[in-house]
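Protein of interest.
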Amino acid sequence: MCPVHSSPPFNAPAARRLRAALGMAPGHVAYGLRAQYGLLVTPETVMAWEQGERSPSSAELTALAGVLWCSPGELLAEPVTLREHRLARGMDPEDLARRVGVEPNAYLKMEESGRWKGNERQSAALASALKLSLAQFVGVTGKQEELDGLLRSAATTRWQAYVKPLAKLLPVPKAHLERVLELLHNEYQQRMVATVSWGGGESSTWTGDAGREYLDAISERFWSLAGGAG
């Protein structure tokens, strides 16, 4: 189970830069947080945020974005988890759950565990709402290991048998998946044939090496073919 973080990945240099661009001192920011949002934040705390010594909570981050006239996403480092992507879009769990079509409590459990269990329609809605690339979707939903296994099997055996399992796993049209899996399978087979021919009498060693190299990089090749490397 993935750990649950109390604070989003705060981008301290961005906060400092945005404040300076507005001609504000840390005291002005603290006053705005108190006057506009009722948050008792001191100038020293604002400075600690900007120096990377502390990070604002989710509520403080949203309020800080309001005071600095920016979006919450501009105050975040590159998001990695589902929760971080949601925060970067400035969405609360209830709003995202409604857009995706799941109960808020069920969504929160999936967000906290790092394991997405939505159906195909809900997965597509999640990727759309958070503007996730295909690679990001796999990362935030905890499906990388499962995806790697399916792709390896599709490349080395009968790829047609893996269209349906992958369609359930990824928000990708079935017809597109079919084209990509066929390409992966053909590339793998062509590489194996070429290596056997080149290796002459030592084909078994070279075949194993070539196969492992291709399969180790198969996810990256999949992102490239599927247009989801993002």
